From TrEMBL:
The gene is LOC120251362. InterPro entries: MULE_transposase_dom (IPR018289), Transposase_MuDR (IPR004332). It holds the Pfam family DBD_Tnp_Mut. Residues 197-267 form the MULE transposase domain. It comes from the Eukaryota. Coiled coil: none annotated. This is Uncharacterized protein LOC120251362. Residues 5-60 form the Transposase MuDR plant domain.
Length: 272
């Protein structure tokens, strides 16, 4: 599909696969292709510059989706086209998905340069931005869909980590906060970590925003030990009290004697 070589009798799964192959051929060889007529029974691919090149494809038989090239003239007699509409944002996102996965911060200028060198096509910054957005959405997932699966996520965590504490807080059905303390982390902290807990918050960059509150301990090797975290709508006193109360219940802290809490890496003792 990356560099198709067409011939009479070649078969495709459906018209979409046929048109994708023709578009990839045009991108690879720097031509722009048109599709007309283009319906559920037939499709003709021609060169946009009007040269004799054409491919005629139709269904092999009624009731089937298999498409076959029935006739064609597969030589171009026109110049190359360095402004190719087939090099669209979705196409770039699919073509360079692994590069986006390896470098989510890939700059727009780098995307434009890669397309220019590899496809000999000029794209705008807007096309590069859209391609990056599509690729990262496909890699990271759609936030709206993920938010709808929060309860499924909770059930999966409870299934794989029995005894964990995972709680939601909602206001009239609207999600406000989520608290997570996995049982293995809690038991490991109580068994081998010092009674020192660092708490901090940071902004969440995404469709819904919010704050991430976290509690981190110190293990026997003086390394950070994740203990519990919460996603809240805002970093407020009420949200911090809610988070620390749940944390104290998980750790059975009835008396603050012997416990030290550090906030923003400052030596501040907090009584619970």
């Amino acid at each position: 599909m990356g560099d198709p070589q067409f011939k009479i009798g070649m078969k495709f799964r459906d018209f979409k696969q046929f048109k994708d192959a023709v578009k990839n051929y045009g991108i690879k060889n720097i031509f722009v292709m048109n599709f007309r007529p283009n319906d559920s029974r037939r499709c003709k691919a021609t060169c946009a510059r009007g040269c004799p090149f054409y491919l005629w494809a139709s269904l092999m038989e009624r009731g089937s989706t298999t498409v076959q090239i029935k006739s064609g003239f597969m030589k171009h007699e026109c110049a190359k086209e360095h402004k190719n509409r087939h090099v669209s944002a979705p196409w770039i996102a699919r073509k360079y998905r692994e590069q986006f996965r390896a470098d989510p911060a890939w700059k727009l200028s780098g995307i434009i340069q890669a397309v220019r060198l590899n496809q000999s096509v000029e794209i705008s910054r807007l096309t590069a931005f859209r391609a990056k957005s599509i690729a990262l959405r496909e890699i990271d997932g759609d936030e709206e869909t993920q938010m709808q699966s929060l309860y499924d996520y909770r059930l999966e965590l409870m299934k794989t980590h029995p005894g964990s504490t995972i709680k939601f807080r909602c206001d009239q059905g609207v999600f406000e906060a989520m608290y997570v303390c996995l049982a293995p982390l809690r038991l490991g902290f109580l068994a081998g970590c010092r009674r020192i807990i660092s708490v901090d918050g940071c902004f969440l960059k995404g469709l819904y925003g919010g704050q991430l509150l976290s509690a981190v301990g110190v293990d026997a090797n003086n390394c950070s030990y994740p203990l519990a975290w919460a996603v809240v709508n805002k970093e407020t006193r009420m949200n911090w009290i809610w988070f620390l109360q749940l944390l104290s219940e998980d750790l059975s802290i009835g008396n603050s004697h012997g416990w030290a809490f550090v906030s923003d890496r400052q030596k501040v003792l907090v009584l619970v």
